[in-house]
């Protein structure tokens, strides 16, 4: 069977809120020790939305901006799928709301709906798009994948791990960013580490320690399964993490990513403990895998061992995550956007990149892609560093007021969003969709800034 060649990503667009807070100032406001958020979590700023933005509005924004910036016709899109866990309707999909953007083109022949499982929905939507293009259902048109969420938490220790963002990926053949076929390591399991059973609230139920443990265990499993396929299918002898020029991770907070990258070195060590590069950690050779997950000494040793590689291969991918925060489904793909716009395009051509996706509950995958052609145009359009610099920083007191406003108005009907008193010009980037009103039957309508 023949497949379309070089199936992958043709275009990338990212959206994050215009307003943010400084995590160091939030530490003082919350009365916690200096460095708890900035060092302990690895976060510097956090983006946030008031009641004028929801999952529909940020999805509309990222799609329309991608279409305009890349000059794509809505007629040329045959599949749209949204990965999100920000649910504002138990029946109507975000994808169906996005279809209003297709109205003028007359194109209603568009496959796909929404996909939900915590932070994994975007990855599932991506896999479905790739599978669609390689199937008998494909009609030659593009697929559009949207991954986005608004991450908010109740007042307390989890609140600094919030954020908001949305990423759109245009998928097709002859792409510069090409996914490796047949190389996915997947792990699924039933766990109650993070879930949202209360539909009257935006806030999740979270077991933070369990969620971190599940993340690392899933990483072990997915990475080792990927490496096994690399050996058996691609005939790569004794592959290691250095097979990848860069690594992208789902990023609830950046400190976890640094620990996770170190964990891959541990996995390599378990498979090949006699490798000379592991000379400094030989005293961990007899430790069980279960014990290794609890050992702070082991974690520290492998973080030190991997640090030079982390600085080069991972840290450049965390630009948006460090300054925006957790974007749930968009989180992993924000690291892709950061890589493409934070590393010179000439340095990326010919490189192979690994990706780890995790969604609580749980669903996880390790997969990879190669950059086969220049991504200079994508890099120029993304321009993440300058977009981050153009945001407005608000005081923690204002952030607290906005969080209270979202909590009080969640699920309401028959009202016009109050906002935080700022004008649309101050509150939103140009070209941003925002919620105009929710009528007496919970029907939402949107406007777009100039």
Automatic annotation (TrEMBL):
GO molecular function: hydroxymethylglutaryl-CoA synthase activity
CDD domains according to UniProt: init_cond_enzymes
Pfam families cross-referenced by the UniProt entry: HMG_CoA_synt_C, HMG_CoA_synt_N
Alphabetized SUPFAM superfamilies for the sequence: Thiolase-like
GO BP: acetyl-CoA metabolic process; ergosterol biosynthetic process; farnesyl diphosphate biosynthetic process, mevalonate pathway
Catalysed reaction, written as an equation: acetoacetyl-CoA + acetyl-CoA + H2O = (3S)-3-hydroxy-3-methylglutaryl-CoA + CoA + H(+)
Hydroxymethylglutaryl-coenzyme A synthase N-terminal domain: residues covered: 3-176
Binding site for CoA: 211, 255, 259
Top-level taxonomic group: Eukaryota
Annotated InterPro entries: HMG_CoA_synt_C_dom, HMG_CoA_synth_N, HMG_CoA_synthase_euk, Thiolase-like
UniProt similarity note: Belongs to the thiolase-like superfamily. HMG-CoA synthase family.
Cited function: Catalyzes the condensation of acetyl-CoA with acetoacetyl-CoA to form HMG-CoA.
Name of the molecule in the record: Hydroxymethylglutaryl-CoA synthase
């Amino acid at each position: 069977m023949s497949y379309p060649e070089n199936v992958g990503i043709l275009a990338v667009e990212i959206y994050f809120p215009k307003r943010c807070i400084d995590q160091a100032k939030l530490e003082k406001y919350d009365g916690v020790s200096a460095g708890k958020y900035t060092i302990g979590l690895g976060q510097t700023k956090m983006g946030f939305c008031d009641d004028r933005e929801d999952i529909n509005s940020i999805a509309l924004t990222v799609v329309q901006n991608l279409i305009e910036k890349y000059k794509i016709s809505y007629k040329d899109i045959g599949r749209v799928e949204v990965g999100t866990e920000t649910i504002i309707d138990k029946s109507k999909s975000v994808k169906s709301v996005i279809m209003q953007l297709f109205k003028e083109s007359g194109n209603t022949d568009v496959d796909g709906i929404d996909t939900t499982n915590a932070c994994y929905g975007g990855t599932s939507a991506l896999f479905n798009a790739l599978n669609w293009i390689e199937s008998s259902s494909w009609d030659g048109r593009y697929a559009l994948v949207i991954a986005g969420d608004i991450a908010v938490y109740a007042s307390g220790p989890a609140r600094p791990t919030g954020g908001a963002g949305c990423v759109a990926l245009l998928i097709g053949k002859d792409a510069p960013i090409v996914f490796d076929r047949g190389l996915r390591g997947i792990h699924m399991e039933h766990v109650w580490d993070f879930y949202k059973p209360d539909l009257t609230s935006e806030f999740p139920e979270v077991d933070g320690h369990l969620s971190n443990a599940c993340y690392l265990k899933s990483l072990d499993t997915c990475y080792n399964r990927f490496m096994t396929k690399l050996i058996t299918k691609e005939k790569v002898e004794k592959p290691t993490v250095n097979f990848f020029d860069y690594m992208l991770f789902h990023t609830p907070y950046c400190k976890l990513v640094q620990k996770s990258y170190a964990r891959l070195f541990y996995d390599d060590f378990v498979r090949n403990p006699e490798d000379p590069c592991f000379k400094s950690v030989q005293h961990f050779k007899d430790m069980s895998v279960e014990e290794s997950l609890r050992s702070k000494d082991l974690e520290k040793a492998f973080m030190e061992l991997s640090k030079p590689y982390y600085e080069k291969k991972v840290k450049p991918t965390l630009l948006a995550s460090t300054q925006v925060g957790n974007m749930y489904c968009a989180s992993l793909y924000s690291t892709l956007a950061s890589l493409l716009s934070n590393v010179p395009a000439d340095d990326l051509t010919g490189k192979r990149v690994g990706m780890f996706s995790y969604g609580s509950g749980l669903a996880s995958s390790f997969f990879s892609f190669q950059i086969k052609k220049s991504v200079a145009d994508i890099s120029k359009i993304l321009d993440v560093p300058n977009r981050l610099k153009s945001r407005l920083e608000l005081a923690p007191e204002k952030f607290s007021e906005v969080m209270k406003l979202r909590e009080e108005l969640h699920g309401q009907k028959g009202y016009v969003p109050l906002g935080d008193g700022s004008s649309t010009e101050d509150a939103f980037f140009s070209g941003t969709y925002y919620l105009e009103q929710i009528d007496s039957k919970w029907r939402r309508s949107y406007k777009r800034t100039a």
